[in-house]
Every structure is written in C-alpha cells, then in structure tokens.
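re: ur question from earlier - yeah i can do the single chain one, its not a big deal. heres the input i used so u can compare w yours
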Amino acid sequence: MAVRTDLTIYQGDTYLSPWWVVVVDGEGVDLADPDEGWTVKAQARRDGLAVVTWAGTDATPGAQIITAPWTGDVGDLTVETTAVRLYLTPEATALLDANRSLAFDVELSSPNAGPLGDAYRVTLVVGSISITKDVTE
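and the output i got, formated as tokens:
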C-alpha cells in the first residue's frame, strides 16, 4: 500500500522531499543493490500531462532521485536499508506554475523481486504537490 504524502514546493527554491524507505517483514529493501535491479521513478502530473519527471531518459532538467544508506527504527527493530528522496534545483522549481497543484507518485520496480522471481512493481508514495510563489526575491 502506498503512503499518502502531500508536498509543498516554493517556486525558485531548492527542493528536497522527505526520505522514504521500504521495509518488508522487518527487513529493509536495498534499492541501491545492483543484484536486485531496482528502478526508482517518479512523476508529477497536471491534467494527465507530465510536468516533472524524476529519472529515466525523459527526466526533467534539474530533477533527480537521490538514494543514500539509512539506519532507523521501525517498530522495535533497527533496520539498515536505502532511503530515497526527490530533488529539484532552483532552476527547475522556478519553471513550475505557482498556485497550482500536481498529482505525484514514486514507483519502484525490479525485474526479479516478485514472489516467484518474476517482475515486481509497486507505488511507494502518492500525493499532491502544491506550488507556492516564493515571497523573497
């Protein structure tokens, strides 16, 4: 089940989303493990049209997905895994229309992480993004 998260991006500012991790049955899913072949993609859309694409050949300039090692508590367990977050440069956020909202999601896929060694695809995060005009210029 995807986590619902609503985000606010200030036009013209650097943007870093919260960190997100994947934990299944108390074990972290290492999204950076090349043997698992995980791909992390994300898009923000308005009226069905992609406004921002993170990752892939059609990525928006200034938009990146960042991964980093993460250790934290999940319930009573300490978990080591990989965290993921979205990044936009000030140049990328300056191009977004202020006072408009976007629908977004972050999707994970692997060619062999399914329960039968088959392809696996899941939406990690879903929500809306509010674009706010920056006050200080």
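The chain has a mean pLDDT of 91. not sure if urs matches, ping me
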